[in-house]
Amino acid sequence: MNGWCGKILKIDLSSGRTEAKRPEREIYARWIGGRGLAGYYLRDKVTRSWDHPEMPLLFFTGPLVGTTSPTSGRMTVMSRSPLTGTAGDASVGGSLGTALKKAGWDGLIITGRAKTLCGIEIADDQVTLVDAAALAGTGTSGAYARLKKKGAVALAGPAAGVGVRFADIVVDGHYAAGRAGLGLHFAARNLKYLTVRGSGKIRIAYPEALKKANEDVRRLMAASPVLLGELGIGQYGTAALYDLLDARRMMPTDNFRRTRFDAARRMNAHAFRQRYAPRRTGCRGCSILCKKIAADGRSLPEFETLSHFSALVGNTNLETVMEANRLCNDLGMDTISAAATLACHGEIRGRPLEPSEILSLLMDIGTGRGIGQALGQGAAAYARACGRPETAMTVKNLELPGYDPRGAYGMALAYATSTRGGCHLRAYPISHEILRKPVATDRFTFSGKARIIKGAEDLFAVVDSLTACKFVFFAASLEEYARIYTAVTGVESSADDLLTAGERIDYSERIMNDNNGFRGTDDDLPARFFELPGTGDGHLEIPPLDRAEFLKARAAYRRIRGLNEEGRPTREKAAEMAIDWDGSSEG
Amino acid sequence: MERLIRKYVDKLIRSGLAEAGAPLMGARDAELIWNREDKNRAILQEIFTGLHISTLLFALPAEPYRTLVDFLARTSPGTIHPQDTETRTFLHDLPVVTSLAPAEIIRALKNRKCAIVPGRGIITYGTVSPEQAFVTFSSACFACFVKFFADYLRDVRNGSANPEQKAVFQQVVDYLGSPARLDFSLTHGPFRDEATVLTAMEEAGKATVDCRLVDSYFGNISCLFKDILYISQTGSSLDELRGCIDPVPMDGSSCVGITASSELSAHRAIVTAGTHRTVLHGHPKFSVILSLACNEKNCALRGQCHLRCPRRRQAAGVPIVPGEVGTGPYGLCHTVPPALAEHRGAIVYGHGVFTVGKTDFNDAFASLLDIENACRKEYFASL
Ligand code: SF4
C-alpha cells in the first residue's frame, strides 16, 4: 500500500496478546485514517461504559503521517470520553504518530486491563509489555525523562491515577492529547506509558507530484500572516491570538461574565517572550513550529491556556500562568478544563482566586486531595454538586475555551454543534470571523453560518483523518491537500471527495452520541450567553446572543447536516453516506 | 446572504469585470437564493448539488477580458497556466471545460476554484462567502490579461506571434482606454492624529481601486504615525478599508496586528529606514507584464525567476526584484526594502509595485500611477 501501512496493531492488556489486523482497502478509502478510522473502530463499542475492558483506546495515524507533506506529524487518540460521555478524540502532535507509522502501524487498538501497572513498548513489529510499577504516581516530566531514550513517548500523569475526568495524555513531554479525558483510559487499563520506535519508510505513490503539491502549500504558508508572519503563531505560538481576541472583546473574563481583560496588555505573548526567551519547536514534519519552550524547559502557554489562566480566573501574574501550565502538564490534565473548573469554583464561592490558590488547587485536583476530588470531576459535575449548575460554562460537559461566543456567532453555533462538546477546534470559525481566512465574515450575524459550520466540521474531520494540522488551513485548503493525498496514496481524489469523507466521519460521531443518549437539546449553550452582555467599549457593544436567532441557525444547521428536526441522525442520511447503521437509536 | 450577493454582483460590474445583467450568482445557507432569473439556473442548481459549496457565480466577463479569456481557452485546451504570482500561489492554474455540462464543471470545480467555459464565461464558487467567488473571478480575469500580454510580447520578440494572436491583440487594445489618472490630490500630511491617518488611508486605498491599480482584493497600504504602523488587514479590499486597518506598534509589544497584511514585514522594514512614512502596494497590469518579460537567453534559473532572479532588471526607471508573498526565505520582505532605499518604487517579479511617500499618500500614489503608465508605454514601444 502507498501512504498507509495496511496494518493495525491490537493489544489486549488483560491477556497480553497482540494481533495484527489488516483492514480491507475499502475501509481505508472510506475512513482515511486518524479520527475517521479510529471512529470506525470505536462505533460498535461506544455504548459501553468508558472504563469497560472492551472499550478500545485508539491511537491512529493517517496516510500523510510520516511523509514529507507539511504538518503531517500529528495523530488522533480516541475513545469514549470519561468527561462528556461523547465519542472523545484528541489530535496530538510531537513524534508519536510518525514513530508509529514508521514502525509499520496505521493504528493501535488497546483493550483490556493489565493486572499491574505496565508500559507498552513498540519497536517496529516487536511489542513488549513492561512492568511500570516504578513509575507509579510519577509526574509526566519525570517519567518522560526516564523513557525518552525508547523513542516517542505517550504518558498519563498522576491526575489519571486519582480519577480526574479531564486527565490527558502527554506526548514527548510537551504535547497534550487533551479535552476528552483520555488520560483516564490509561489508568483504567493499568497502563502508565506507551513508547514507539520505528525504522521503516512510508511508500509514496507519486513522489514528484508530492513535491509539487508540497511546494504549493509551502508558498501559501509563507503568504499567511497568521502562520509565518512576524506576529504569527510561528513566532509567538498560538498565544499570538491573545491581543487580538481581547481587542475584539472576545476574551472570556471572570468566568465568562465579562469579555475584556484589563491586564491583557501586560500578559500577552510579547510579555512572555521578553521574560522567558523561548525557542521554537513543534511537531515532527512541521515547519510552522508553533510550540515555544522556555530556557528552563517549561512550555510556554498556548492561547487557550494563557487566556483561561489569566482573564478567566482574574490572574495578572505571568509566572502563575507558566507554573499552572507546567503543573497541568506534569500532573497530566487538560489546561482549559482545569482553569474553567477553577473559574467556576471562584464564582460559586464568590471571590476570585489568588495566584497561590490557583496553583495549590491544581495540585489538589491532580493528586485527589480535599476539594480537588470534587473539582476533578469537571465544571459541570462540580457546579451541579454545589447546586449552581448555571456557573458551569460547558457544552455537553466540556468546558469552553478562550473564545467568547457573544463576539463571534459562528463560534456560538460551532460550540453547540460540536460532536465532542464545547470545543473550538471542530469548525474553528475564528479563522474567518476573526482572522479573515479564507475571507472575512461578519462575526455578529448567524446569516450563512449554519452551512459554513457544517462545511468546516466536515473539513476538519478530514484534516484530523489525513492527518494534518488544522493551523495550516489558515493558508492552504483541501484543494492542495487533495493533491497531496493522491500523490501519497495513489487514490484519485478531489477536495470535494475528501469533504464527502469528512461528512461521513462527522455523521458517524453523531450516531455514536445518539446511541449514548445525546439529543438535539444538548446542542446548546449555557444560558449566560443569552442573558448577559459582553464588555463593550462605547463604540462597540457586545449584546447577549439572540436566542431566537440562535435557534433558527441551529434548525438550519440540522437541515443542512441531514439531521431530523430534533437534531437526531436519520437512517436515510446514514445510508446516503454509506454508513452501516441499523438506525437502532433513530429518532 | 441576499445583501452579500447584491454587493458582489454590483462590485463585478463596477470593477469592469462584467456587464450589467451578466452575473448570475446563487448562494445558500439552508435555502438557495439567486440574484435573478436565468435559463442557466437549472444547470447551476445541478452543480450546487454536486459540490460542498455555498456560492456559485457564472458570468461572461466584460471586454477586454472576454476576448482574452476565450483566446487563451481556445489555445490552451485543458488548462491555462498563468505565471503571475497571484495565480501561482492562490489559483495554481485555470481549468478549461468544453461545455456547460454539469458533470464536466463539477469535475473541474472539485479540483480548482474556477472553470472557464469558452464563449460562455467563467464559473467560480465560495465555501464561506460570496466574496470568494468574486475574488476568484477577478483573479482569473487578471491572470488571463497578464498572460496574454506577456505571451504576446515574448512571441513578437521571438518572431513567433501568429496571425490569430495578432488579431486578438488588435481587438483588445481598442478596449484598453486611456491611461489612468487622478484628478484630485489626496489628503496632505503631515497627519495630526490617528483619525486623519485612517481617513487618508481609506481615501488612498479607494483611489487605487478606482484607477484600477489593484485587482480583486489584493494590494496593501500603510502609514507610520507615532511609532505605530497603521496597515491594511490581510484580504481587505483597498476600497473598503473602514474597520480593516490594524495598528501595529513598531516596538513589537503587541500581536494585535496578526491580521495585518502578509506584507507587514516589508512595510515595517521600509519605514524603519526612516525616510518614508507611507507605503502603497498595488498590482497594476502592465508593470506585472513587463516584469515577466525577460530577454535573457539560456538563463540557468529559468523557472525560478520569481524566487531568485540575480539580474539587475528595470522597467519605468525602477528596479524589478524577485520575491514571494510573505516572509519565507524568498519573501519580498528581503528584496523590496533595499530597492526602495534608492528608488521611489520597486516592481516585484510577476506580482506588483511598491511605492513610498514622505508624509502622505500623494507621492506614493503618483509614483504608482507613473510607473504603471510608463510601463504601459514601454510595453507598446517594445513591440
Ligand atoms: S503548527 Fe504547531 S501544532 Fe501544528 S503541526 Fe506545527 S508545531 Fe504542531
UniProtKB/TrEMBL annotation, chain A:
Presence of the UniProt keyword Iron in the record: yes
Stored SMART domains: AFOR_N
Q: Does the keyword Metal-binding apply?
A: yes
The record's InterPro entries line, in alphabetical order, gives:
Ald_Fedxn_OxRdtase_dom2 (IPR013984), Ald_Fedxn_OxRdtase_dom3 (IPR013985), Ald_Fedxn_OxRdtase_N (IPR013983), Ald_Fedxn_OxRdtase_N_sf (IPR036503), OxRdtase_Ald_Fedxn_C (IPR001203), Tungsten_al_ferr_oxy-like_C (IPR036021), W-dependent_AOR (IPR051919)
Cite the Aldehyde ferredoxin oxidoreductase N-terminal domain residue spans from the record: 4-200
| Source taxon at top rank | Bacteria
Q: One Pfam family, short name please?
A: AFOR_N
The protein's GO terms of the molecular function aspect are: 4 iron, 4 sulfur cluster binding; electron transfer activity; metal ion binding; oxidoreductase activity, acting on the aldehyde or oxo group of donors, iron-sulfur protein as acceptor
Query: Which cofactors are reported in the record for this sequence?
Result: tungstopterin; [4Fe-4S] cluster
Task: Describe the family membership recorded for this protein in Swiss-Prot or TrEMBL.
Answer: Belongs to the AOR/FOR family.
- UniProt protein name: Aldehyde:ferredoxin oxidoreductase
**UniProt source species:** Syntrophus aciditrophicus (strain SB)
Q: What is this organism's lineage?
A: Bacteria, Pseudomonadati, Thermodesulfobacteriota, Syntrophia, Syntrophales
